[in-house]
Design brief:
The protein has about 425 residues and is an alpha/beta fold. It is about 35% helix and about 25% strand. Strands 7, 8, 9, 10, 11, 12, 13, 14, 15, 16 and 17 form an eleven-stranded mixed β-sheet that branches. The chain has a six-stranded parallel β-sheet with strand order 3-2-1-4-5-6, sandwiched between helices. Strand 5, helix 6 and strand 6 form a beta-alpha-beta unit. Bound molecules: L-homoserine (HSE).
Length: about 425
Amino acid sequence: MKPINVGLMGVGTVGGGTATVLKRNAEEISRRAGRSIRLFIAANRDAERARAVCGDEVIVVDDAFRIVDHPEVDIVVELIGGTDIARDLVLKAIANGKHVVTANKKLLAEHGNEIFARAQEKGVMVAFEAAVAGGIPIIKALREGLTANRIESIAGIINGTSNFILSEMREKGANFADVLAEAQRLGYAEADPTFDIEGHDAGHKLTIMAAIAFGIPMRFESCYLEGISQLTAKDIAYAEELGYRVKLLGLTRRTDSGVELRVHPTLIPESRLLANVNGVKNAVLVNGDAVGPTLYYGAGAGALPTASAVVADIVDVTRLLTADPEHRVPHLAFQPDQLQDLPILPIEEVVSSYYLRIQAIDRAGVLANITRILAEHGISIEAVIQKGAVGDGAAEVVILTHRVREKYANQAIADIEALDSVAGPVVRLRMEELNG
Ligand code: HSE
């Protein structure tokens, strides 16, 4: 049988890993796919690098449009990233009737609705296992392994850079800026780390998982994003004293009034497995009504782990090439005409518990005033600690609350900040028990 010809667009870290895995495991891969799969053509701005990585038997070009237009290419692999050229290339490949494999979470979260609609019209597959949590087969698990379930919620550590920074801040008591500099030195964080540390990358991945879990369109524009750059080592230490770890979580949950879709630093009990996912690793906790909680753990980035997901998609597409489009697994797990545009809840409507750190004057009645305000807003307290004077008769009060709708927590925080005896803004972190 004729081999499947792969066109690789982008020979950077993941592209290089993909070329390596396709070559190194060629025999195993063809035994699994039922035919051989070869890297036929590669495009990279630096064609010399592509030549060095891919070898002499591969055609190398510097213009990726030559790949999407090449009549002999069966599967286009998009590893360029971003949404400008990548979007044009993917849409052109689809228009040309080619199947697409991509690791591009931003492209799918922001333009996925358009891309999947075009792919549906043309009867081609768009596979994207590598777009979420690198080498962890979470898309396959959500879309196929858990297909019997009504999925209720997903909570994931899905940005390795942020998780590395938070792990180091906790272990070393170091501040954010120092650890970020260390992460950049080690190559874990980009020179411009905004995308990772402010929650955008996690938001893209969460958007994709929510779409597959609930059968909704991609709604990245409604995803609440809050990053880790404002976190202090002090709050991480206080959280730990109270039995919690702080993680940048992507959370999506089905509720009666809509879907929660939010990324923010979150206190989680230290006994949870997720709380113990450290360094650059990723993990995703999925709750299904039949299966209960399931947890997926592994490398969320890196050349070979991400290539593992890219090549798995190439094999999947190869196996399904001869299947009628209607007999393939739908892109978003649900049949396209069965997607439901459920409302995404604004963050003010989300119900959560809170960690509050309040800087107050150390005198009689201050704590009573704070707890009175919380009670007035119907907020019940789970734990309180007061830390010794932090100077000039000031003290810090740390309060853990029970669950409350965010808008009521905001009102209470504003009232607390207005007290004469309170100095500066209240530090507020959300807290999730994650107990199913
Ligand atoms: N930059 C991401 C991370 C990996 O830090 O996890 C690619 O999405």
